[in-house]
Amino acid sequence: MRAAQLTEHGGPDAVRVAEVPEPAAHPSLVVVDLHAAGVSFPDLLQTTGAYQVVRPLPCTLGAEGAGVVRSAPRGSGFTAGQRVAVLAMDGAWQQTVAVPPQLVFPLPDSVSPTAGAGMLVNYLTAHFALDERARYRAGETVLVHGAAGGLGVAALQVAAGLDLETIAVVSTEEKAAVAKANRATHTVLADGFKDRVLELTGGRGVDIVLDPVGGDRFTDSLRSLAPGGRAVVLGFTGGSIPTAKVNRLLLRNVSVVGAGWGEYLRTDPGYPARQWAALDPLLRDGTLVVPEPTLYPLDEASEALRSLETRSATGKVALDLRP
Ligand SMILES: NC(=O)c1ccc[n+]([C@@H]2O[C@H](COP(=O)([O-])OP(=O)(O)OC[C@H]3O[C@@H](n4cnc5c(N)ncnc54)[C@H](OP(=O)(O)O)[C@@H]3O)[C@@H](O)[C@H]2O)c1
């Protein structure tokens, strides 16, 4: 089978498509032929060895995909031919994966295989951030940084599915249009976002900030919180890790919480299945929508990564793995 592999920490150009053996069948694993696989910022960080988990080389990149079950253990609940999304943390940019049943999720008819390929990591992270970490309540308002990126779009969609208002923070008008198309209630430009957010909320601020960007905007994120607000740290695409003066937390009765979904799974491997049980009915009845990604052929995996590096990507990016 074909796979996109990283052979050295040389950035996106170090990704090469190679013929590799199919994963060995195992009686406890579900074998899935993938239609497409998601591309995420952590894949980009892995190409330079800058991600928090540095994998031994060569390695197949990617952590998620969608396709059709080839074979499944008896009693697993899956059958050959079934459409599924999978988490394949050891590499998903390959045509076939073998994964434990608890990391396989039946795709409802409302989600296409290409949309499903890039949904799991971001939708489950957004749900984790809002539900488990920020403990959202009905009627709250959520500010989303990097709102036209992969995780940002998922956060807007999940928040809308949970009936929460959102303020999308983006760098350009083009990205504002992407955020609007993904159900943002309001959009504001990153430059000077705090004043606009306070204007939109009548001076009160937002209840929750979801921040996958970090960098120097973090202090203004804290200043944008309403009393009792929670800022959720999700990542650092802006390049620098911010520090917070904790007197700001005391003065405004606000909190900063971290949300590391992958890390959470290490101690609670059954968590994604419980999240899926909460989100699946919303996907089936159309309350939760998963938009189509920008699809690149597997041979253009380097370009797909570069679109994240240059900040030109909007929404989710995925790789087409079909033969
Ligand atoms: N905590 C978790 O469990 C978890 C799970 C998944 C992903 N993440 C993290 O979430 C972050 C976003 O991932 P993603 O896959 O959504 O990435 P993405 O699709 O590339 O989106 C990232 C967004 O960040 C913004 N950005 C600001 N400064 C940037 C810069 N210098 N370079 C690139 N982008 C910049 C961009 O929006 P503007 O141009 O509008 O500013 C861009 O749309 C990453 O840090 C990733 O590691 C965390």
Describe this entry's structure for a reader.
This is NADPH:quinone oxidoreductase family protein. It comes from Rhodococcus sacchari. The protein has two domains: 2-118 and 291-320, Alpha-Beta Complex (Quinone Oxidoreductase, Chain A, domain 1); 122-262, Rossmann fold (3-Layer(aba) Sandwich). The mean pLDDT is 97. With 323 residues, the protein is an alpha/beta fold. The strands form three sheets. Strands 3, 5, 6, 7, 8, 15 and 16 form a seven-stranded mixed β-sheet that branches. It has a six-stranded parallel β-sheet with strand order 11-10-9-12-13-14, with helices on both faces. Strand 12 (206-211), helix 7 and strand 13 form a beta-alpha-beta unit. Helices cover 30% and strands 26% of the residues. The structure holds NADP nicotinamide-adenine-dinucleotide phosphate (NAP). Residues 40-42, 121, 125, 146, 148-152, 170-171, 175, 190, 212-213, 234-239, 259-262, 308, 311, 313 line the site of NADP nicotinamide-adenine-dinucleotide phosphate (NAP). NADP nicotinamide-adenine-dinucleotide phosphate binds next to helix 1, helix 3, helix 4 and helix 9.
Radius of gyration: 19 Å
Query: Stretches where pLDDT falls below 50 for ≥5 residues?
Result: none
Bound small-molecule species: NADP nicotinamide-adenine-dinucleotide phosphate
- How far from one another are the termini? 9 Å
What is the H/E string? EEEHEEEEEHHEHEHEHEHEHEHHEHE
Q: Let me know the number of strands.
A: 16
CATH class of the largest domain: Alpha Beta
Mean pLDDT: 97
CATH homologous superfamily (4th level) name of the largest domain? Medium-chain alcohol dehydrogenases, catalytic domain
What is the third-level CATH name, the topology of the largest domain?
Quinone Oxidoreductase, Chain A, domain 1
What does the largest sheet look like? 7 strands, mixed
Helical percentage: 25-40%
CATH-derived architecture of the largest domain: Alpha-Beta Complex
Task: Describe the global form.
Answer: globular
Q: What percent strand?
A: 25-35%
What is the domain total for the residues?
Answer: 2
Structural class: alpha/beta
Number of helices: 11
